[in-house]
Design brief:
heterodimer; A: mainly alpha; B: mainly alpha; Arp2/3 complex 21 kDa subunit ARPC3; 7 helices; 69% helix; 2% strand
Amino acid sequence: MSRNVKYLLAFVVIAIVLTPLGLIAEGSAWGEWSIAEIKTMLGFVPQSIENAKPLVHVLIPDYEISGLGAVASTWISAILGAVLVFLVMAGIKRSAKRAN
Amino acid sequence: MHIPDGFLSPSTYIPASIIAVPLLISAFKKTKEAINDESFAFLSSLSAFSFVVMMFNIPIPGGTSGHAIGAAMLAILFGPWVAAFCISLTLFIQALVFGDGGLSVFAVNSLAMGFSASFVAFYVHKLLHNKISNNIVLFLSGWSSIVAASVVVAVVLGIQPLFGVDASGHPIYFPFGLSVTIPAVVGSHMLFFGVVEGIATMLVMRFVEKLMHQNTNKEGVL
């Protein structure tokens, strides 16, 4: 493994290890409220927001795995996300090589 | 800034999808050209970093929170198209696997955080590079990239009240107009998250530049 790869991997791993710090923020991002939050804010929920259904079944909604603590959920989500990014990129690299 | 399903009218996300699809195809092709054994480690690590950094919610006064994007570093290193593809890939995984940002409005999120942020970062960097201190250029590229994304999100959200009300007079889609969304979304990104993005861009770029210099000092590392 080249030095660069080692350092870059360490960089990503450190970022993943630190993700639970993001749990300190309790408020939602502005404009990303849940239906319950909108209801408290406005007294009603806009039709389209109330009826919104996700197009696909989401595996880990809100980075929370049921039965697991917040920190563990966050770590697993971050690892899964990073691994998926690496896999897609590796797939693109392979198809680029084949094209040449 | 990840807009959820149901917040936007179809008359917003359908045209956005029509614009985004050809852009994403071009961005994918450019990424395929740019990816090789040497660039792969940088491209995939910085894309993974972008995924992770968006989970890093930072609380700000007023009870809300937000996060950096990580588009600027990719745009400076690999150009705006490749950066836009990498960020869009991250956003797609977030929507598909974690329900963060709606899949139906993915095009809007991709145009805001992917394309707008990457292109603004790239051109700000190009314009200021070698004119002022490198750290300041990196900071400004990061800051302006996320502020640009926030402008797109604020405008898209803020025009939703124009797309209809129900029988009782309540808005059907996102309920707040531009006079609320611009200060809330753009203001918070100028004051807080832009600063975080700027500092992150500066630090990560210093680290990446160091790695590249160690790497046998050859020019075309990427």
